[in-house]
Structures are given as structure tokens and as C-alpha cells.
Amino acid sequence: MGPVWHCQGVPPPVRTQPADQRSVRSHNLALALGEVAGAASPVSRADIATATGMTRATASSLVETLLAAGMVTELAPRTGPQGGRPATGLTLSGDGPAALGLEINVDYIAACVLRLTGTLQHRETVERDKAGGDPIASAAMLGRLAARVVAAAEADGLRLAGAALAVPGLVDGGGVLRLAPNLGWRDVDFHELVQRQPALADLLLTVDNEANLAALAELATAPQDGSFLHVSGEIGIGAGIVVDGALYRGRHGWSGELGHVSIHPSGPKCSCGARGCLEQYAGQNAILRAAGLQPARGTSAGGDGALARLVHEAGRGNTQVLNALARASVALGVAVSTALNLLDVDHVVLGGIYAPLFPWIAPEVERQIRRRVLFSQWDPPTVRRSALGADAAVVGAARSVLQGVLGDPGAYLP
Amino acid sequence: MGPVWHCQGVPPPVRTQPADQRSVRSHNLALALGEVAGAASPVSRADIATATGMTRATASSLVETLLAAGMVTELAPRTGPQGGRPATGLTLSGDGPAALGLEINVDYIAACVLRLTGTLQHRETVERDKAGGDPIASAAMLGRLAARVVAAAEADGLRLAGAALAVPGLVDGGGVLRLAPNLGWRDVDFHELVQRQPALADLLLTVDNEANLAALAELATAPQDGSFLHVSGEIGIGAGIVVDGALYRGRHGWSGELGHVSIHPSGPKCSCGARGCLEQYAGQNAILRAAGLQPARGTSAGGDGALARLVHEAGRGNTQVLNALARASVALGVAVSTALNLLDVDHVVLGGIYAPLFPWIAPEVERQIRRRVLFSQWDPPTVRRSALGADAAVVGAARSVLQGVLGDPGAYLP
């Protein structure tokens, strides 16, 4: 298979004399690594040459560089079905540059390490009280958590290529969190705050919206389903939009604010200042209040937090809880239908708290979609449960670092 | 300036030996024509060579082909400010392949011709009664209108490169109108119906959603404002989404169904079958009903149709009309804010009936945006009036044909 590329404008010129040999080699290294990463089964040097239009000698030389950098590994030679000269198979190496994912959310903090192959090597989550954490204290808490995870990765012999931080709000290009309504934070320079932590001082760092990163993680679990809306249900609600295998970010990376889709223009007051936003009907605390449960810290479905109580009570048929979930599902279905009418994607993936609550949420969301989405008569969008749930954002953060390595391996050579 | 290209994936391989000389020449013809079309002032052969990385000889040979095809024209040589050898300036030629735009909307039919330079050469609109037109009769009516416009273009010595038809509904890849709720039409093969018209039988034809095409027309009028939502207000309401200079179409081209954004989930019944959609608050007939005016044919603000009456009554301060417009503006503002929270674009362009109604609609839309769009505090989206109004879709249809010529001029050589 040739390289997949989507261009929205005029393609680049054909050059007979490359202007810059080094940039051409970087570019070709990325092509070769992309062939290995994108293949369903091990590929040979000849496969890479064929798929990219390089000479066999160029492909072999690039593969040597990638082998030396620990980015690819070579399986034992096997003789083909027709006999003849045995080809060795190349795959991504789990010992290559690894990635650190970080997350600060309203009621928890998380860190994880992914190997270059995408294998989740370490993950830690710490629940916390929103009230107990200003940005400086939160960054310090994250620094301590990250120190443990980084030490564990180093003990496994992994070298970190960089880190990415997921936060629940609007982030600008410089890593400043402009607004996180559910934390009451504004204009917090997380890029600077996080790099001040000793365990993180020397790492390349990016900061992005948690819903965007969660969608990246979901895309990696099912790359064949390339057009979807990934809904991250937490205390706030965000969405990541993926179209034809690429994240739709909008102009500033501020797309997908599903939590602020209007349900009733004069409904309850929202943390953003407006009225009747989806979060006030289907956010975690809105559901807990309607269910007669105390909004409290703790989003782990397996723990003893608020979400676990909700799942438990729904499971035993508590009527007030079921009514609260029904009300939330209608609102979520209306908002998701609006998003589908605007965005035209194939699937809806329910993540965050909606993953454990899926059985009580999904049927009504599907019903609203059938009723409200104009195109649902021809190509009805499907609704499915996120495989990663609340882990999606932190895993997606690490995924975004791996994307950087795969996109420009030359920048990560030892 | 080099060619602008936006890639979302791995870029194409560098080839030292082009696999197919003909495709390379087509590609380079498009690059050369793109340099001429994209420049703010006339460019020389040397400018083209510099910008694209071609040799001067290649650029000159491509320019000769484009001159012979009538796609570019050469201005009289002028000596540069430093004296020396005079350079000739190249611009797009108005005598090159022209484009036919067609539109079937709920209450009118339109056709236009654009020269390759984008100049509007002919335009005709015929109002019609929705009740009087099934798809076959509508296509026949369009065929007669198109015959007049095509004859006028031929009398001017123009050669048509192709035609595009704008329709108010969901169109599939084969030119079948899947659903037009406000016409009650389903599964109408407009590609086949239109090509059955004698005046149109020999023309390349594409069929697309009117709101998508209207956004293309708007983009051409202000290419520097590359990220916006263009709202086409008619009896139905559609939107075209442009991000970084490219139309966001979604998976099937069905994005931007702003008219079916939910305003009140249990509001009035919509033509689509759902309840509380924006069209029931801010569509032309909804406004007319609330204003106590008879929904009637006629969307031309200068004519004596329903819209003209609305504009006239608003202008003289008719309270019921002003209240109807105020109610419509709140709903439109809520829906547009939802779209901005999901899409993250910089501007909102109010088109169709909202262009003549702009003074009574825009202030409330702006107020809702300030209140409801999360990012409006840092980079507040602006609201402006469409320059083209009700002509946008038919002009955009012709624009889409010109895009095809500019994207692959080799396919349109005489």
C-alpha cells in the first residue's frame, strides 16, 4: 500500500534537484517508518521501496538508521511460500522512543507511558478534590505522579521522546489554558508550570484539550473507523471530531465544545455563563444532583467514587437514578444529533463516564439520532462505547507524542 | 511565494524518475496556472519558475500551453523600475473556459455564467411556486432557463467547461438528491434529469448542496477570511463550513445542516419529522407566519415577493414584523453559537434572506455569540453580511466548475 496523504490545496512541486539533502532524508525516514507502522503485518525492505518509490538501496539505508535508533526491529528470516531468498520482516520496536501522557482533569490527575508500539506500559490515576487544587498545586501534584511513572519507565529501559498534557478547557498555541469553566481557571500557563516540575523539566512538552486527545486515542484503537465524534463525559463534556482519519481541530483547536451546545436556551445557568448548556443536563454532577446523590470526587467506575455509586444504583433499578439518566440521555441525544447534522460523521463513541453508563444512555441517544439527524435514513450513524473510557485523554496525550515521533523520526535519533 | 499546501498525513514520496510524464505535466500545468490565479498582481514566467521550483524553460513551455488554451493572457511588456529587460505580466484570461452555475431552490430557479476570471457574465432567476413543480417539471424549467443563458454565453464567444447544480438538500456522490425536506423530494436523480435537457446534454455536470456551494462563492469574494460559517437563509436554512480556505464537507458532503439544529427539543414540528429545529423559528416561512404575512413565493429583496414585504414592513417599524424578526434572531443566534462551539471558525456570514434582513438580525446574533460561545472572550467571531445574498449558491455552483479547471487545466485544453 502506498502512503496515505490528504491534501486540501495544491500538491508540492516535483523537484528534480532536492534543495536540502538533510530534509529529504528526514522526509524519507518518516515515509519508511510510516510504512512499517501502518502495515498490518511485518514488511520487508523491498516492500518499503515498492510502496514509496524509493530505490532498494535507499530503503535499506533508511531501515539501518531506524534499526540503530531502536525504532524498528527485525523478525527472524522466513523463507517465502515459493521458497527462494528469505525476507526479514520489520515491525515497530517496543524499545524505541516512548511517550509520557499527562492529564489534569476536574477531579483527577493521571500519567501514563506508551511504548512506540502503542502498548500501555504504566498508568497511574490520583483522585483529588477540585477545591484542593489551584493550578500551581495541581501542577506540583502532577509532577510527583509523573516522577513515579518516569522512574518506572526508566527502570524498564525506556527513553522518553516527550510528554503531552491533557486539560479540560481551551488551550492556545503556546500551551496556555485560556479557560476551564469547571475549574474556574483562566489564562494558566501550563507549559511553564509543568516544565517547572523536576521530573518533567527536560522533556519536550505540548498541552492540548483533553477531548481532542481522547479522540486520538480512540482513533488508534479502531483506525478503520476513521470518521467519528468521541464524547468525553466528565463533570464537563467535550468532544473530539475525527474525519477521514484526521482530527478536526478548527481554527484554534477549540472545536468540539459539545458541553456548551444549547439544549433549552433559557435552561439552568452553566459554569460558562450561558444558560441551558448540555453540561447542565448530562454532565456528571448534573446527573448526580438529579439522581439525589452527592456530587463528589472520584470518576473511577471501579472505585468507590460518585460514578461507581451511580452505576451501582442504576444496576439495582433505583428509580430516581434511572430517571436522572433518562433525562441526561435525551439531552445528550439532542446535542449529539445537532453535532451530527453539522459535522456529518459516521459514528458516535461514548467515552468518559458514558462508557460505564452506556447501557442506560446509548439507547435513547440512538433514538434521538434516528429522529433528528437528517442523513440517518441512508447511512445511520452508529453509537458505540469507548474502549478506553476515562483513560482516553491521558493515553491520547501519549499517542500525540508518538505521532510526533512517527511524523519526524529524524528528530528523535539517539 | 511558494504554493500553499496543507497536508494532513504523510507527504508524497520524492521521485527522481516520474512514473508518468503526462501526469507530471498535468500537475505542473495546474501549478503554473495556480500561480497566475493566486497572485494579487500579474506574474512573469520567472516568478512561476521561482515559486514552483521548476526550471525557467519548463515554466515557459507551460505558459505557452496556457496561452494557447486561452486560460492566461499576457499584458504588454513593461520595463521594470531598474530598467533592464522588460517582463511581461500574465493574468487569467476572461476568454478561457467559462462555467455554468444552476440552482433549483424551493421557490426559485436560477442560472449564471462566470468567466474564468470569476466575472459574472450572465444571471437569470425565475420565481416559481413550490406546488407547481415536481422534479421533472423543475428540471425542464431549468433546462429552458439554461438554454437562454448558454445561448447568451455563446454569443459572447465563451466556451463552457461544465456545469454544477445547487439543490437544497442532501446529495450523494452520484448526483442523486437524497432528501429535500422543504420540497418533499426524495431520491431524485438530478444528474440524469438535468442531462436530459437539450441545452445541457453535452455538459459535464456535478450536483451539490446549495449551502456548500454558497460558501464557496463567499470564499471567493474574501479569500483572506478563510475560516467561516456561511448561513444560507431561505425557506430552509443551510450552512457551508470553510476552514483554512477549504470547504469542510464531512463524510458524505452532508455537513452544515444548521436548519435542523435543535432549538427547543419539544418545539414545533419540522418538515424533517423532528421537533424544534431552527427552520421552525428562523426559516423564511416561519418568520412570515410569525409576522402575520402570507408565506408566498418570491425571495428577491428587490421584487414584490414575500421577502420584499418583510423588509419593507420592518423598515417602517411594523411591531409584529419586528417581533417576528427578534424571535428569529434569538433562535438563529443560539444555533450559530452551537455551531461555533463545535466548529471553531472566525466569522459568521449571513446570506440568503438574512442579507437584506441583516440590520434586524445581526445585533441579536452577535449578542448570543458573546454570551454562548466559549472562545468569544479571546477571539470573538465576527458577523457580517454576505455580499452575494440569494445569488451565492448559483454563483458558487459556477465557482466549483472553475475550481475544477484551475485544479486540472490539462483536462480542459481545447
Summarize the structure.
2 copies of one chain form a homodimer. By secondary structure, chain A is an alpha/beta fold.
Report the oligomer: homodimer
What are the segments of chain A in which pLDDT stays under 50 over at least 5 consecutive residues?
A: 1-19, 298-304
Helix tally of chain A equals 12
CATH superfamily of the largest domain in chain A: ATPase, nucleotide binding domain
The whole-number mean of residue pLDDT values of chain A reads 88
Q: What is the general shape of chain A?
A: globular
Largest inter-chain contact set: A-B, 79 and 79 residues
How many strands of chain A? 17
Radius of gyration of chain A: 23 Å
Please give the alpha-carbon distance between the first and last residues of chain A.
29 Å
In total, the number of domains of chain A comes to 3
Describe the structure.
The structure is a homodimer of 414-residue chains. Chain A is of the alpha/beta class and 414 residues long. Chain A has 3 domains: 72 residues, Arc Repressor Mutant, subunit A (Orthogonal Bundle), CATH 1.10.10.10; 136 residues, 2-Layer Sandwich (Nucleotidyltransferase, domain 5); 164 residues, ATPase, nucleotide binding domain (Nucleotidyltransferase, domain 5, 2-Layer Sandwich). In chain A, the strands form 5 sheets. A 5-stranded mixed sheet of chain A has the order 7-6-5-8-12. A 5-stranded mixed sheet of chain A has the order 15-14-13-16-17, with helices on both faces. A 3-stranded antiparallel sheet of chain A has the order 9-10-11. In chain A, β14 and β15 form a beta hairpin. The longest helix of chain A is centred in the last third of the chain and has 25 residues. The N terminus of chain A is likely disordered.
